[in-house]
């Protein structure tokens, strides 16, 4: 139903909107062979963990979609669409290029490592490409954290990427015109992502996966599927039952 509202009633909502310019990108979890390959080319582990993310001038929060299949015949004259696969979209990251070109070296030699499994020197006539094993070039600890100007950590939105690696490095244009900051853009693929923080502290506090601070103390949620009532037990309830059983092994129904 449409109702008349005053500006003051929805002003707090419209003045509490997220901004695009507060975010942080961090790269981590690179396999040891890849870190060694980058280190001998002047890209240290410290630079990767602390500096490269600060050079990311433009990023994108990830998205996903579902692969679906049409199901015909369950109901007369009705075609149903059901999900069978979750699909993740690739993301583009744009970086400022420093005067030592470490950003370009980071991206270029990461891709070089992926296709350099042949062991043959690149400057020889018989060079050929051979892909490295995925566990040697995929990283599992790259994160994008979205926050606001008040830096309230309880309101941060974190995305953690699993199996991330670059699949394309765009051509970087240079010219004799007016000088501008040199930028490099790379496209990254990943197997999946986790929405929300998943570290030991958030798991212990029950706030992992964007759960509210007090969610682990909430009562069990009741669901009714076609008239059949089921209870979604929290892990805390299950843990409490197991602990009680271990402490009182003889206290069982007769």
Question: Would you write up a description of this structure?
Answer:
- This protein is α+β, with helices and mostly antiparallel strands.
- The protein has helices at 7-14, 32-39, 45-51, 102-115, 134-137, 200-205, 235-247, and strands at 23-26, 56-58, 64-75, 78-88, 91-96, 142-146, 157-162, 165-169, 183-189, 192-195, 221-225, 228-232.
- Strand 3 (64-75) and strand 4 form a beta hairpin.
- The longest helix is centred in the middle third of the chain and has 14 residues, at 102-115.
Q: Any low-confidence stretches, pLDDT <50, length ≥5?
A: 218-225, 227-239
How many alpha or pi helices? 7
Radius of gyration: 25 Å
- Strand order, biggest sheet? 1-6-7-10
SS content category: alpha+beta
Briefly say what this structure is:
Helix content is 24%, strand content 29%. It is an alpha+beta fold and 254 residues long.
Keywords:
four-stranded antiparallel beta sheet, 254 residues, 7 helices, 12 strands, alpha+beta, Pnp Oxidase, Chain A
Topology summary:
Blueprint: H1 7-14, E1 23-26, H2 32-39, H3 45-51, E2 56-58, E3 64-75, E4 78-88, E5 91-96, H4 102-115, H5 134-137, E6 142-146, E7 157-162, E8 165-169, E9 183-189, E10 192-195, H6 200-205, E11 221-225, E12 228-232, H7 235-247
Antiparallel strand pairs: 1-6, 2-5, 3-4, 5-9, 6-7, 7-10, 8-9, 11-12
């Amino acid at each position: 139903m449409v109702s008349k509202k005053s500006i003051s009633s929805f002003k707090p909502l419209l003045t509490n909107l997220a901004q695009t310019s507060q975010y942080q990108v961090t790269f981590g979890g690179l396999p040891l062979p890849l870190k060694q390959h980058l280190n001998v080319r002047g890209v240290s582990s410290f630079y990767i963990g602390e500096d490269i993310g600060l050079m990311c001038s433009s990023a994108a929060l990830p998205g996903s979609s579902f692969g679906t299949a049409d199901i015909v015949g369950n109901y007369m004259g009705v075609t149903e669409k059901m999900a069978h696969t979750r699909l993740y979209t690739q993301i583009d990251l744009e970086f400022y290029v420093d005067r030592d070109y470490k950003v370009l070296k980071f991206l270029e030699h990461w891709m070089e490592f992926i296709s350099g499994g042949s062991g043959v020197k690149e400057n020889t006539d018989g060079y050929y490409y051979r892909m490295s094993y995925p566990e040697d070039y995929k990283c599992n600890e790259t994160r994008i954290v979205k926050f606001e100007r008040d830096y309230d950590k309880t309101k941060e939105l974190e995305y953690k990427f699993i199996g991330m690696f670059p699949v394309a490095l765009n051509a970087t244009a240079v010219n004799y015109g007016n000088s501008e900051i040199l930028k490099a853009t790379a496209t990254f693929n990943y197997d999946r992502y986790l929405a929300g923080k998943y570290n030991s502290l958030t798991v212990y506090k029950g706030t992992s996966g964007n759960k509210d601070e007090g969610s682990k103390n909430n009562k069990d949620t009741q669901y009714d599927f076609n008239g059949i009532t089921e209870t979604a037990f929290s892990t805390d309830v299950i843990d409490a039952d197991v602990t009680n059983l271990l402490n009182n092994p003889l206290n069982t129904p007769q």
